[in-house]
């Protein structure tokens, strides 16, 4: 059972006793112990020093440590407060509730906080902004007693008073309920409701108990704990935890069930447990806390049976059991997987070494001893005995089935840790990135490093070579340039680009984004986790996979996703490595997981992949040396072409559009059919890359419109649409919207900008971002704004009649449409649509109807200007405009307008024009 050689160190931390919560943050050298409104901070590098002391809110219900030395405290008084652990002071009150707060956690890489309590509501709060805006409020349906957050998949597991466990997805600002585990947890209903709710909540967290009377005599604490009476069953259930714990890689969720077993679920399928740890080794009393080790290979649990148990994930068995001297209240892992820290209900903290036990299971004698003790104490708890044997058999079957899954085996193998590159160039790049600062200037996000020396980073690639079943060796790839911020483009060429991509921020980034959905990556220890999410959840189910290749370029459509490792991390400061060629890789996956492939791409020294594009029938890969490769959706290379350096590309069912680099002051584009026939070759692109910040790509958005026309959005936020591109030497870029002015027009507020997604008819689709250059996590829902041609302020003539002015303002609130703008917009839209219809490039059945409607709008816009000229008495200008009218009914309306204003000469001219046109039509 307990190994006598295990190191045990118990310290009296709080002389007043009380429930002691212990917390250690993965990137910190400090251990935090909390009780009775006090936090004591231990420096684990200097254990001889006295701990620092900081005051926090009284009635603490949860204490969470996050990035940047911040902490969250949920208190019984109904407040969620944030603290600066470095300055040791309170910085903000994030949320208040009339009832007690029970839990608060950091989310989205530490940029948000999620809190909840007895009111039964979840609040998502921005912790970075000065105002700490509440992004979302969600009703959980019952009182909340615990929150566990999966930072890899942005999933929140919410423990409810009725024993349910609800899992919400927070990939978007509006959360979605993913799954509900019914009555899986210990029910807390009686403890949270009624007139005695506050008192019951206090009993839940062990406050005011007998052990609070302990003094500073540690030996006396231990002796009194041995002699103290065993808590009643109701009291024990009240102290049981309902908080599950997510695995560090985000795949697994360990849940302490009401039967005192620990069930492990895979987030790919919550309908049944992936496995259960053996019931014969389950705690004989309610479980108080469960925590995964930093490397994810072990799970520790403590219970009211005064037992510390450590479970091995690969073997799915108990590997360590330790008797505790007193009742535990919480546990945490130290800086590695070799140490467990347990907080006691008496104000003590105990350290236990588990490093020697991590790789082995209990001996047969110890197993027999455990089973014998289970039989001896079998009457102490509910749900044990005969019923537990059935659970044990089921658990064995599930464990045996799940052990066949290579996913578990992949991340429990021991591999050498990665080491940080300490070359002069990389140091300089890191320093430059740190000096830039800002939201996306974190140099620590450029690579994964085993900073505690525990050796838990993994060197195995997730996934297998097609049909081989062999694991691929891992390489460290440093994502740089646009994606890491530490390597500028080779010879002035910007880094890799994907539509909608963002740099790393708080260990995560968006890889690509379009109206279908988005792919995002989270930095892990030795690999990244890529998640593919859809705006329309009914279309496809969100899925994720592990990335051991350093994938940093992506393109997705409704059917699949194409990703690539650009190879930009294989260069240091633009200099090629001595080994010569670099191998990048491309990866294709169908969203329904029915098909996929992976293949390597050989690159020349100094070359990297700049862009990829996925279309309905082909995939394209472009490089900084101008090589454009076309692959079938089965991974077969079908075409290879050499161009000037390619910066970006997009493809549709018929065409490929590439942006080429001539100089920082000159970008060009090519447009060709999928068989290689050029429609436009090396034409000028009115987007400039000079004068931009080092991390900024000259292109902000790149996509095909719903009618099949190429669209580009530069850093000036002007949406450009390519017109007349099907005719040689006739292509021209038409500005159809200034997104910044459009946001001001719809009163979006200050500090808001638009992240381009697409153009659908006369609507521009975008994601609104506030006080940031790039979209943040969670992602706001897509929005739309009407297209308005940027004719320039004051360029359009104003209506002189108040009535007309009022009519013009109906569609746009405070901003009236200029008749000239309306005319220009109609001409551009009609020209684009007519060209697409003439060349059979529109699949929309309503295209002809839309073109006819545009013709009517064209005449209406002209009539407005005719009315303006008539009001001014400018007959010549009025007649000039009349000659542009197309429909005879519009000519008749113009004649009536002139007649009403008693412009007889103009009426006569209009009537003669009508007669002439009728004669021509008759002939």
Automatic annotation (TrEMBL):
Annotated segments matching region Disordered: 363-493, 786-820
A GO MF term: chromatin binding
All copies of domain WDHD1/CFT4 second beta-propeller, residue ranges: 496-791
Keyword Repeat (UniProt): yes
The species this protein was found in: Dekkera bruxellensis (Brettanomyces custersii)
Skewed-composition ranges (Basic and acidic residues): 396-407, 803-813
Ranges where the WDHD1/CFT4 helical bundle domain occurs: 819-919
Protein name: Minichromosome loss protein Mcl1 middle region domain-containing protein
Classification via InterPro entries: WD40/YVTN_repeat-like_dom_sf, WD40_repeat_CS, WD40_repeat_dom_sf, WD40_rpt, WDHD1/CFT4_beta-prop_2nd, WDHD1/CFT4_hel
